[in-house]
Amino acid sequence: MTAVDSAARIDSRRAWQLVLEHIEADLLAGRLAPGDHLPAERALASELGVGRSSVREALRVLEVLGLIRTQTGSGPQSGAIIVARPSGGMSSLMRLQVAAQGFDVHDVVKTRLVLEAAVVTELAKAGAPRDLASAIELLDAMDADGRLPEAEFLALDAAFHLALAELSGNSVIASMMAGLRNSIESYVLAGVPNLRSWAETSGRLRHEHRAIVAAIEAGEPELARDLVSGHITGYYAESNFIPTPADPLVPFDRLRQRSPSLPKVTEPDKGLPHG
Fold first, then answer.
1. Which of 150, 23, 125 is nearest to 81 (CA)?
2. Statement: the pTM of the whole predicted model exceeds 0.85
3. CA end-to-end distance (rounded Å), the chain
4. Parallel, antiparallel, or unpaired for β 68-71 and 79-82?
5. What Rg do the C-alpha atoms of the chain give, in angstroms?
6. d(Cα 141, Cα 149) in Å, to the nearest integer?
7. 3-state secondary structure of 79
8. Which uninterrupted H or E stretch holds 39?
9. Could you give phi then psi for residue 70, rounded to 5 degrees?
């Protein structure tokens, strides 16, 4: 094989990237927008000087990323249409990254603190959303059976935190939380053997979830932020993934004293296992 033939094969393998770059440039320049049709495969291939197979490969990537929807036929909905589904692509990419090599637990904790503090702060400022019930239903499921397996309990826990992110209306944060969900679940489950008592910890987690929701409903953004921060760092510290903070957050009962408007939350049963 000559050097020219080798270069041609390399260029052929990378041609689909040229198509992606071209479409990205059109999006950034405003020449393409959600709802617009992409040019036909033949037209793109001719314009960019690549094979139609390279165009099809690029379109498959864009479809997986949630940027386009493709449909065969000859009607107005046929072909490749820009849809810009923000949650699809980002979540998929993050899930793949987690599956490939994982994220360091310290980075996961720091990211959760930033994202979830912003989520509960905004929710509390806006007042309780009408559909906050969707998050509360998950808490009810955690309470429904006093002996949920740890994995099921913690899956509901992760679903609750994701539900709050989705209720915030911030699609970027919701997508990041969805992408991190597998990583969050794996770390919290891996920490269970390090706990002194799963019964006590699961009861505390249930109580803290209810307190966070109560702070949101009461319109207490600073309190909600402190509660979710204490909730996240408390579990990771208790399960020995991170050091116990040198200056721990104010305990939940003192937070309640600081904010008398926070509705009363039923204390967890300490004598019975909750997971």
1. 23
2. no
3. 64
4. antiparallel
5. 24
6. 12
7. strand
8. none
9. -115, 145
